[in-house]
Design a protein that fits this description.
The chain is an alpha/beta fold. It has a single domain, classed as Rossmann fold, CATH 3.40.50.300. It is built from ten helices and ten strands. The strands form two sheets. A six-stranded mixed sheet has the order 6-7-8-3-9-10, with helices on both faces. It has a four-stranded antiparallel sheet with strand order 2-1-4-5, covered by helices on one side. Strand 9 and strand 10 form a beta hairpin. The chain is globular. The model has no long low-confidence stretch (mean pLDDT 94).
């Protein structure tokens, strides 16, 4: 029975003999920002890569349990190409295509059959505005994307993801290589996007999780230790391990 936008039930993941996640069960609600925090090797990135099936080609990958998107099993009943249109991903390092700013964003819609220039123009402007990048690049859309700053490239990657109209956006440490000003702009975009998109943010920056997320999940050695509203996780968590991590005693 569907209850959340994404429902993860008793999911375990392994790469050969190495366990990455163990018996994870929780829901991700529609149009929330869920932060996922925890020290290295806690399973955070494995979770994201499992949600849009990027792990499938990794050697020895095994999964048990179920993940449902709007009540539909993403491994049994949704084609990978359809799933990745519905669940987009932003990586730690910006990865723009070696094309112009315009063509980076138009690439996805063109792949899905949109060819009319007026439609593409509208998509480019709309998504760049949503990613808080339009005012900085509107007069140089033919510029090679690789000439943008790192922060601008990351916001371009957000716009490129939005261009194919996903329902869920996954972020894997999207600000890890950015300066504070660029980080603030990415965070501003995330908060604005919440009215339309479900967002899952993996971050090692607990202050970032506290700033932007509605709820926070704390992972440790492949287990989900605790998930709750962000304010509670950072002030009165239920588990002493959560308190130890958010207070900086380990991690």
């Amino acid at each position: 029975m569907k209850t959340g936008k994404l429902d993860i039930h008793n999911v375990s993941i392994a790469y050969g003999e190495k366990k990455a996640l163990q018996g994870i069960t929780f829901e991700i609600q529609d149009k929330e920002i869920l932060a996922v925090i925890g020290p290295a090797n806690s399973g955070k990135t494995s979770l994201l890569r499992t949600l849009n099936r990027l792990n499938e080609n990794k050697s020895g990958f095994k999964i048990s349990g179920s993940i449902h998107l709007d009540g539909v099993d993403i491994y049994k009943d949704i084609a990978v190409s359809s799933l990745r249109k519905r669940i987009g991903m932003i990586f730690a390092l910006p990865n723009p295509l070696p094309l112009s700013i315009y063509d980076n964003i138009a690439y996805g819609p063109r792949m899905h059959g949109k060819r009319k220039k007026s439609d593409l123009d509208q998509i480019v402007e709309k998504t760049l505005k949503s990613a808080f990048l339009w005012d900085e690049v509107k007069d140089r859309l033919n510029l090679q994307a690789l000439k943008l700053s790192g922060g601008q490239q990351q916001r371009l990657c957000i716009a490129r993801t939005l261009a194919v109209e996903p329902e869920v956006i996954l972020y894997d440490e999207p600000c890890s290589g950015l300066d504070p000003i660029s980080t603030a702009k990415v965070e501003e975009a995330m908060v604005e996007l919440k009215s339309v998109y479900t967002q899952i943010l993996v971050t090692n920056n607990t202050k970032q999780a506290a700033r932007v997320s509605d709820r926070t999940a704390f992972f440790l050695t492949g287990e989900l230790i605790e998930i709750d509203v962000t304010e509670k996780i950072f002030t009165v968590p239920n588990d002493p391990r959560t308190e130890g991590y958010v207070s900086g005693r380990f991690g």
